[in-house]
Design goal:
The chain is globular, with a radius of gyration of 16 Å. The protein contains six helices and six strands; from the N terminus they run E-H-E-H-E-H-E-H-E-E-H-H. The longest helix has 19 residues, at about 15-30. It has a single domain (about 1-185), classed as Rossmann fold, CATH 3.40.50.360. Strands 1, 2, 3, 4, 5 and 6 form a six-stranded parallel sheet that branches. The protein has about 180 residues and is α/β, with parallel strands linked by helices. Helix 4 (about 105-120) links the parallel strand 4 and strand 5 (about 120-125).
Length: about 180
Amino acid sequence: MKTLLVVYHTRGVKTAQMAQALERGALAALKEADAEGEVRVVVKRCADAGPGDVLDADALALGTPENFGYMSGMMKDFLERVFYDCEGKIEGRPWALFVSAGQDGSGAITSVERIVTGLRLRKVREPILALREVTPDVRHPDTKWGWMGWGAGVACSLTGIFFGFLGNGSLPDALRRKRRETTSR
């Protein structure tokens, strides 16, 4: 079974809401695609995650608030704790980033991407940025499915169902169709 590890930090609720939506979306998509047993979704706060979690994961989603135009101190602490133990051992694994911000979020995005570049992970999505409030109708620019769709896409990248939900039709139909295409090869 593959593992999607979601690591996030928040002192408030916004980044936690994003992490929960990502988890719900991933689990819902896997269930609809009859792929529940293929990917395990693990959600941890930065303080509770370490190198072993990252080494055991097949994909990584990182979430941070923007603090003073930068990633949170706890996200930086997490990345510092895992970097050298994971360097050279997780190259090419998919990763994605979500940021809650009161300003423009660019400093938080840039600072996380700069460190993750050294791990040579494969970015599967452009960062998700929630400015100010995270609401149920927050949408990522390239999908009508919102946060849950983004979570579905990250989870599905692990099973080979690469973002079939971006086209027409319902999310479950697109996932099943993509699943049939990848399993019949």
